[in-house]
User: Which sequence fits this backbone?
């Protein structure tokens, strides 16, 4: 994500808050700690030291870090506590997390509200958490110094203890809490020197793993509330469609069904348990209004986009002064069309939400990515003030951008309000597949030119797709005007790092009616494919090695070049491979991290692609937990590889055709490539790690297929029929 | 009422005998470690043991479990010390963690039947369980580590 995009999203999100009216979130620190679970101890009776919203130190020296960011697998419940442990100078074995309430004290500084997204958690909380931790440490030191009557500067700290070396005195943090609580937090505490780091930059075991291997980790679907009912919703399958006539008699006759609630776009069955709700739902008869575009289809959208690419002027996202001149002078011109389909998020835990709407307040539980907005949406939906909505964040059974949405939040809230009891709404896999906010399908019309010596002289990329901001805006009183750019539609294309001569990137916005949303790595999920494959084509057209061609045009972008060189070196770029195999390379920057990947593939006679090995090099600036970085890079790659090999949501008659994992395939163990992750040593500012592993894999694999077979794939997913031996 | 034994504890449940075992375990027995992912035996998040064999509980009716012993992730060990749980922690396998009960329960059966599984054995036994976070290589490493450490305890 570029700085400009960050700014745009921040403004957008800020606007949403303003539109939501003035919000007052009292700072209510959570009372119950997960320390109990980890350490087997109850909350101590003596008050803990809470110098700020993030840190709580108990008399036994245990530290609880309150984390506002949501855990969707990216390791934030470990990385943020690591930052605290470092500057507080405590043993990491004495640190545990708890999840924060919806409160502006935990707002993501980039967005001005609580958001786990944009691969921003470490980037945004590194400095504030270090400062909060250093301030707490200085207060504890000052408390000890006061007791001993010595200057604070003469004291040292290590592993949760303050020392006075000259007088050989020592005090554990836990004995200093009362005294420290009476002091004023320093405004500018001294941070630890990076060379003294003992935790940051070292591989640390995740704090949430134990609860994820014995069934005790609580996801939204596991929440139990006294008196709670469970619901399933039969949703209108047509995009933008509505409920017509409902025959609920048979559903009501199902044992355990308590209520049938007609919502605008679906009919909810509320029952004693899930299976009764599901049986009730299956017994419903509903006639649907088929929505505003009853004929919407994938073929139609492709034609609409192709027409837009060829005939619409569109908006200019970036241009240099003389594209036309360069085009006319090029000795060789390469042209291609690249296509990326709509994609579903397919989190393993289908959308689930628990709401308890009362007369003047509400309490909700969910795996959500934007807690303060959830409080607003629940408040507005339930008719209670947002500051009377208590939001409990559970573990997320996968996020990938899907749980930024509010549809399932609204479902639970409406149903609880309707029946006057706590309700857990659980979507089926089919609901999830057919009711997603999809990664936008994208049509790319590309051309580039070379001079007589094979040097690049122009690059022209026209991106055609839906605008995510156009969909998200209206709900928040924000409208994307026809002359406004939505960077998320083409990010990664307009900031292409290569010096390819005269450049122009156009964006043609099309409003198809398909709901589109943030999907892991957003615009980069498709621009890396189109740009890195087309650069590869250009390199081959110039008769140059794809790595050498890239490096030659990256003089001004050393971090891209650094990642490329490291990946190439570790992968043995240029070394011979067994017959039938090919190697492909790609690099892409997103969310401030530079990731290069080399894929080794083979293609069998039936056209099936096997990815044998993926070598990843990433420069994500200063690293907090290298083991998490490796896991995220590998996991992000798998997410992108799954999409490249199988991912495609298609539409027919205004409805999604895919239903479940049998027709929206997932990569499985037997298809998993070997994978290595190499981290470029760096003291640069933090890049994200949750998303940047995803974009480069599709082009790396497609470029490897070209190396292996001479066939160029320009449309995803990769189809065996295109690669079949004649 | 249907009598059911889960993790060596007896339950009497009111659910219809055709109810999928998954929802009986979760809603009637209150054991939520077993997860719902697809409802059609495509993802394996709901894997439990029925008399020592791996079963997709989302498509196994309650009546098929009558008279048999059901084991869920909660019943694998009283204190998370099964060799596979220890290996999972050692390798730091989980990301979001949602599928991991199903992964571990499947791996338990693999190691019970095969003390030293090869990569091909692991592929054959584990490819039915989807991990959307892509932790497959760590799952493979953890299974091998557990096998080295004595496998199924």
Assistant:
């Amino acid at each position: 994500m570029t700085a400009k995009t960050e700014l745009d999203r921040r403004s957008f999100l800020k606007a949403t808050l303003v539109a939501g009216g003035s919000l007052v979130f009292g700072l209510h620190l959570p009372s119950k700690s997960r320390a109990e679970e980890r350490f087997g101890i109850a909350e101590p009776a003596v008050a803990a030291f809470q110098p700020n919203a993030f840190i709580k130190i108990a008399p036994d020296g245990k530290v609880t870090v309150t984390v506002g960011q949501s855990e969707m697998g990216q390791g934030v419940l470990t990385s943020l506590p690591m930052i605290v442990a470092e500057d507080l100078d405590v043993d990491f074995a004495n640190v545990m997390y708890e999840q924060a309430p919806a409160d502006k004290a935990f707002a993501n500084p980039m967005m001005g509200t609580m958001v786990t997204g944009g691969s921003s958690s470490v980037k945004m909380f590194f400095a504030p958490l270090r400062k909060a931790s250093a301030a707490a440490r200085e207060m504890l030191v000052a408390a000890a110094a006061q007791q001993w009557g010595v200057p604070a500067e003469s004291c040292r700290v290590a592993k949760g203890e303050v020392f006075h070396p000259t007088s050989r005195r020592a005090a554990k943090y836990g004995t200093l809490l009362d005294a420290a609580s009476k002091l004023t937090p320093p405004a500018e505490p001294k941070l630890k020197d990076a060379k003294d780091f003992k935790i940051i930059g070292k591989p640390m075991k995740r704090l949430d793993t134990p609860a994820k291997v014995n069934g005790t980790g609580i996801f939204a679907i596991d929440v139990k509330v006294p008196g709670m009912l469970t619901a399933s919703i039969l949703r209108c399958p047509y995009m933008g469609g509505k409920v017509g006539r409902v025959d609920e008699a048979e559903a009501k006759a199902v044992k355990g069904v308590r209520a049938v609630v007609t919502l605008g776009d679906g009919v909810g069955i509320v029952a004693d348990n899930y299976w009764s709700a599901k049986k009730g739902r299956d017994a419903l008869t509903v006639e649907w209004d088929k929505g505003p575009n009853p004929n919407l289809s994938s073929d139609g959208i492709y034609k609409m986009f192709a027409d837009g690419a060829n005939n619409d002027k569109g908006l200019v996202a970036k241009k240099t002064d003389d594209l036309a001149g360069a085009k006319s002078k090029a000795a060789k011109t390469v042209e291609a069309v690249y296509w990326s389909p709509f994609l579903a998020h397919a989190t393993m835990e289908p959308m689930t939400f628990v709401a308890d709407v009362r007369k003047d307040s509400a309490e909700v539980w969910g795996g959500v990515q934007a807690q303060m907005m959830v409080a607003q949406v629940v408040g507005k939906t339930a008719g209670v003030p947002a500051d009377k909505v208590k939001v409990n964040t559970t573990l997320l059974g996968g996020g990938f951008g899907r749980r930024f949405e509010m549809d399932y939040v609204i479902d639970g809230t409406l149903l609880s309000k309707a029946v006057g009891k706590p309700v857990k709404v659980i979507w089926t896999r089919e609901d999830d597949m057919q009711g997603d906010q999809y990664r936008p399908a994208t049509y790319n019309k590309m051309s580039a030119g070379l001079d007589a010596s094979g040097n690049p002289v122009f690059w022209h990329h026209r991106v055609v797709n839906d605008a995510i901001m156009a969909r998200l805006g209206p709900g928040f009183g924000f409208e994307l005007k026809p002359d406004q750019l939505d960077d998320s539609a083409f990010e990664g294309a307009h900031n292409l790092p290569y010096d390819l001569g005269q450049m122009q990137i156009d964006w043609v916005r099309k409003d198809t009616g398909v709901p589109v949303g943030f999907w892991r790595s957003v615009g980069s999920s498709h621009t890396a494919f189109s740009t890195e494959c087309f650069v590869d084509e250009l390199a081959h057209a110039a008769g140059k090695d794809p790595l050498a061609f890239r490096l030659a045009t990256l003089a001004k972008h050393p971090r891209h070049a650094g990642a490329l060189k490291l990946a190439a070196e570790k992968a043995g770029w240029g070394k011979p491979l067994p017959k039938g195999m090919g190697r492909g390379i790609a690099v892409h920057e997103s969310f401030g991290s530079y990731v290069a990947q080399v894929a080794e593939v083979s293609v069998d006679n039936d056209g099936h692609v096997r990815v044998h090995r993926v070598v990843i090099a990433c420069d994500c600036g200063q690293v907090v937990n290298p083991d998490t970085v490796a896991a995220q890079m590998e996991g992000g790659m798998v997410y992108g590889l799954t999409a490249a090999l199988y991912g495609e949501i298609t539409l027919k008659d205004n409805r999604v055709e895919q239903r479940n994992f049998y027709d929206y395939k997932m990569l499985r163990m037997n298809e998993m490539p070997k994978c290595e992750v190499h981290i470029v040593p760096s003291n640069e500012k933090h890049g994200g790690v949750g998303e940047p592993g995803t974009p480069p894999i599709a082009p790396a694999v497609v470029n490897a297929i070209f190396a292996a077979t001479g066939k160029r794939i320009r449309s995803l997913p990769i189809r065996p029929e295109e690669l079949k031996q004649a | 009422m249907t009598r059911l034994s889960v993790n060596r504890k007896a339950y009497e449940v009111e659910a219809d005998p055709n109810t999928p075992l998954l929802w009986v375990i979760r809603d009637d027995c209150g054991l939520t470690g077993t997860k719902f992912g697809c409802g059609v035996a495509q993802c394996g998040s709901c894997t439990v043991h029925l008399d020592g064999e791996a079963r997709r509980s989302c498509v196994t009716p309650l009546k098929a479990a009558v008279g048999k012993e059901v084991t869920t992730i909660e019943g694998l060990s009283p204190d998370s010390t099964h060799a596979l749980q220890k290996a999972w922690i050692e390798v730091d396998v989980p990301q979001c963690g949602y599928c991991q009960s199903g992964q571990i329960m499947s791996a338990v059966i693999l190691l019970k039947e095969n003390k030293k599984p090869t990569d091909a054995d692991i592929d054959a036994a584990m490819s039915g369980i989807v991990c959307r976070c892509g932790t497959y290589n760590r799952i493979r490493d953890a299974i091998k580590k557990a096998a080295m450490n004595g496998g199924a305890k």
Summary: Helices of chain B lie at 21-28, 83-91, 100-113, 119-126, 136-148. The longest helix of chain B spans residues 100-113.
